[in-house]
# Entry
Amino acid sequence: MPLPMALARTARSLRQAYRLMRARNGHQHWWPGETPFEVCVGAILTQNTSWTNVERAIANLKAAGPIAPDALYGMSRPQLRECLRPTGYFNLKTERLGAFLKVLVEEHGGRLDQLFAGETAVVRERLLRIHGIGPETADSMLLYAGGHARFVVDAYTRRILGRHGWCDPTIEYDDLQALCEAALSHRPADWQLDYWQDYHAQLVMVGKDYCRRREARCEHCPLRPLLPADGPKA
Ligand code: SF4
# Structure
């Protein structure tokens, strides 16, 4: 079905943006964790902190034993809390990781394939019912650990699209996700997962290296050809 005209324009821009980022950076093969379980743990720990801090916490967990559902669920809360200390808000994250582990181990036998089994929307609702898992965390788990194509929206996505005028910067999470998914569903279904995984990875790279919160370094950015004529929007 053809896209409405305004959405078709945004879709052209978003598809062109991917070609430019991909041409500059190559495919990222980005997988934020060594195993799907580690991806899930990282998705919870990265809330409001940098990935470097997450890596420190994951190193602590690895030093304490195997990173596996039963092993982490069997850790005492004080020990888990100490491992998560580098991530900031570590009391909160201990509770959130604990809630995820409880559901995974007690309701799904510690098996991610069971947790992720079913229609994407159903699995997403299952994840969102777990204390401390919001849309961005759930979608990161679905996309990078669960094999479900859901477009991940984060602060970089909102900032880059907002500065180019492709979305209202105050747009709600679900609305921005729907816009991206509608605009970027033009590839064959069996490419979709890889495409959206890499698309998010490319946005993270541009957001970190060029499109910073306090300063848009447009001069050398791969998305410079797509800037509005009067420069980035605030
Ligand atoms: S740094 Fe400039 S060109 Fe790059 S994404 Fe941000 S606003 Fe666009």
Q: What stands out?
A: The mean pLDDT is 95. The domain at 5-29+152-226 is CATH 1.10.1670 (Endonuclease Iii, domain 2). Residues 160, 163-164, 206, 210-211, 216-218, 221, 223-224, 227, 232 surround iron/sulfur cluster (CB under 6 Å).
